[in-house]
Predict the structure of MFS transporter.
Amino acid sequence: MTAMQWRIWWLAAFGKFFEGMVVFMTGVALPLISAEFGLGATEHGVIGAASLAGILVGALALGGLSDTFGRKFMFVVEMVIFMIFLVLLSVSPTYLWLAVFLFGVGVALGCDYPTAHLIISESIPSANRGRLVLAAFGFQALGALAGTAVGYVVLVNDPSVTAWRLMYAAVILPAALVTVARFYVTESAPWLFARGRASDAARETARLLHRHPTYPHHVALKPCPTGEGAQGRAGSRWRDLFGKRNRRATILASVPWFMQDLSTYGIGLFTPTILAAAFGHGAAVSHDVTDIVAGQVLAAEGAALIDTLLIAGVVAAVMLADRVGRIPLQILGFVGCAAGLMLAALSSYYADPTRTLLIFAGFMLFNFMTNMGPNAQTYLLAGEVFPTAVRGKGAGFAAAVGKIGAVLTAFLFPILLADLGTTALLIGLAGTALIGATVTWMFRVETTGVDLERMHQHDLDTVLDSAAGEGREAA
């Protein structure tokens, strides 16, 4: 790994960090926002879903643009958009503008889903691809923990209803530093070559691999057997995702992602709210600022403890993805998520302290298994199972479908929580996790250790069995 390769990795990792930080910090900020603007359950759901809806639009509308304008260009543009809306978010004058600015922040984060993955995976050796992509993705969990921690620190030092503005403002400076640094990375050589720009691809490859002492001394590129370099603009069409060649990949990349986002974002975003209710603090109905802040401080402490299991899950994914394989980990993770949700659902049949213990145990098991399994593996697979010419569109489409699930659960969670209760909601989410495991098995394509260009010499149906064998051998 050269200095440039590590620079790309770190800058992509911080994009995931900001996503986890902003989305999960919203969980701490929501009761304060609700108190300041006098929000009801529906408006509460809109605020919770706004950034996730933006991620959906950004992944679909902007993520695919990396196939047209380049990975680096969109890598920079997304951070500029993020910065603009982050500043506006911290000074939002009304509930409506707050929702608009959260949506704008989400658009930038959505673009980062495919772009960050691709700029890493197309710039590093295949043998390290799984570990490094997932390690960068793991910064989402670090961001979630950091977002909860920032919310806690701000509340302790500024126990006022407007403290949520400082939470978002705290992200501005680090985001500005990352934005500037992204101007100085290399463009993806595989993308340049797929566009027929062979000389530019060779030049960027030389920059990417530059080290002291110089090695290699000379860079020469040749067409891969797929003929990607000759496809040019004609090879990058949305309809190609649903043709025979890529249909299996599209289903595998998108449907399980939808299923896991239904539960992951619902649980992650509303963990502080659920814990506040479990601890006896009626933050959702109280109008006293002191009660709201006290409940959220206690809930933030509990959420921080639970969120540490997100990090543990990513560490497990990094260690196992290139050894066990993407598909087995995704299936195991889905089953584990269902078990954790059912464990938390059982808490309603017990009194404290057993009730609290079951809630914590269930949520902690869920967080560990989702990040070891579907939350990490769906992201990894979406950037690997498509050919270079449509990889940005494929990864963007999969992320967008996933975020449809996130938006649905974020908007409906407060409403369903009030109408159905915690138990029924958790049991329903456990069912969606089992559906995700089933779809993963039916449309499985193992990409572990397989060179992405070699993998797409044939239709994915043809390489299904051989890819799994080659992956185990490479690992």
